[in-house]
């Protein structure tokens, strides 16, 4: 995936992109639409770029991290020897500070009239100024602030998601008003109602995942059986009971009546409501990577496509860009022939 043709898919829907590539409308309606609904809670009017990312996720060979994907972040923090302050950032503002004066002691030795004489001279520098960013935050212990040379924003700067205030910047640093899509994830431990899905008996229910097409009468987008990362052998009693853990994606919180339609019986329900990803509406305008002299924005990449892997790519790009700009290595930025040189080196 890449090149001008692929980038142009930001300006068309995945429906248009698929039709342009020769796929039938039936294939789009029956296969592509369910993939978009389960991955992004939206239909085929999302942009072609994120649509392609969504379809890539339907392939086999996907994997999970034992203990949860959050361990990836924990491992990165450990490897980087980073100092983690567990708090909520409230504001960023630019501050000019004086550097500490430098005192130089110089010793010179003269030999007037053949006599040793030592003279000590002290020189005091007036000091320079440096421009830093003051970060204000709140932790369990109360408010705090620190000064930094560079700032990387790694959270969406959208209303209802990012409440960071940028104080005193001229021109003002923009926050973004485009909405994020709500998704409700409901985890249920119970026995599925096979008849609701067209099967006579629970023991005959062979499916572990059900995706849905566009239908205004449907109150769920998908339902799938959840398995532990480390599989546990299923006992005969468990098989006979038909009890499993199911994950349901829906646009709104499920009411009791809807849960009773989906399940014959259940004993545990866990609900997570979150603004999971942007609400795509091509043509997309991607927020800038650089918001100020040394403030970088990682999450703008979500408006091309929202995914862990996309965020990792954005993070690498921001790390390289900020490093090269900090050390004045401008010739390393936007190298037009880089791809060809890398091919040659390989």
UniProtKB/TrEMBL annotation:
GO molecular-function term, one example from the UniProt record: prenylcysteine oxidase activity
Catalytic activity: S-(2E,6E)-farnesyl-L-cysteine + O2 + H2O = (2E,6E)-farnesal + L-cysteine + H2O2; an S-polyprenyl-L-cysteine + O2 + H2O = a polyprenal + L-cysteine + H2O2; [(2E,6E,10E)-geranylgeranyl]-L-cysteine + O2 + H2O = (2E,6E,10E)-geranylgeranial + L-cysteine + H2O2
Cross-referenced InterPro entries: Prenylcys_lyase (IPR010795), Prenylcysteine_Oxase1 (IPR017046)
Subcellular location: Lysosome
E.C. designation(s): 1.8.3.5
Enzyme class: oxidoreductase
Record keywords, A-Z: FAD, Flavoprotein, Glycoprotein, Lysosome, Oxidoreductase
A Gene Ontology BP annotation from the UniProt entry: prenylated protein catabolic process
GO cellular component: lysosome
Top-level lineage group: Eukaryota
Chief location category: other
Record-linked PANTHER family: FARNESYLCYSTEINE LYASE, PRENYLCYSTEINE OXIDASE 1
Biological role stated in the UniProt entry: Prenylcysteine oxidase that cleaves the thioether bond of prenyl-L-cysteines, such as farnesylcysteine and geranylgeranylcysteine. Only active against free prenylcysteines and not prenylcysteine residues within prenylated proteins or peptides. Involved in the final step in the degradation of prenylated proteins, by degrading prenylcysteines after the protein has been degraded.
Protein name: Prenylcysteine oxidase 1
Species, as recorded: Aquarana catesbeiana (American bullfrog)
């Amino acid at each position: 995936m890449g090149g001008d043709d692929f980038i142009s898919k930001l300006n068309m829907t995945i429906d248009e992109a698929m039709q342009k590539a020769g796929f039938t409308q039936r294939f789009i309606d029956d296969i592509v639409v369910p993939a978009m609904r389960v991955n992004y809670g939206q239909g085929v009017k999302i942009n072609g770029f994120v649509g392609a990312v969504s379809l890539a996720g339907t392939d086999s060979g996907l994997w999970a991290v034992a203990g949860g994907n959050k361990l990836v972040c924990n491992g990165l923090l450990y490897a980087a020897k980073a100092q983690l302050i567990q708090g909520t950032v409230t504001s960023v503002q630019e501050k000019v500070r004086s550097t500490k004066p430098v005192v130089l002691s110089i010793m010179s030795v003269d030999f007037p009239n053949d006599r040793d004489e030592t003279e000590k001279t002290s020189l005091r520098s007036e000091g320079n100024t440096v421009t830093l960013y003051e970060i204000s935050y709140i932790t369990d212990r109360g408010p705090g602030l620190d000064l930094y040379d560079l700032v990387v924003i790694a959270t969406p700067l959208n209303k209802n998601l990012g409440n960071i205030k940028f104080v005193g910047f001229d021109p003002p640093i923009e926050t973004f008003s485009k909405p994020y899509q709500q998704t409700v994830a409901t985890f249920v431990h119970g026995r599925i109602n096979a008849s609701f899905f067209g099967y006579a008996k629970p023991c005959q229910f062979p499916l572990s995942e059900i995706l849905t097409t566009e239908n205004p009468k449907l109150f769920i987008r998908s339902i799938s059986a959840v398995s532990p990362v480390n599989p546990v052998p299923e006992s005969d009693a468990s098989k006979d009971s038909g009890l499993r853990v199911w994950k349901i994606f829906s646009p709104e919180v499920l009411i009791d009546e809807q849960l009773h339609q989906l399940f014959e019986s259940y004993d545990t329900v866990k609900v997570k409501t979150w603004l999971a990803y942007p609400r795509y509406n091509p043509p997309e305008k991607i927020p800038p990577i650089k918001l100020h002299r040394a403030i970088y924005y990682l999450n703008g990449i979500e408006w091309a496509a929202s995914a862990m892997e996309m965020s990792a790519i954005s993070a690498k790009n921001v790390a390289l860009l900020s490093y090269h700009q900090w050390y004045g290595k401008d010739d390393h930025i936007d190298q037009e022939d880089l791809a060809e040189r890398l091919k040659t080196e390989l």
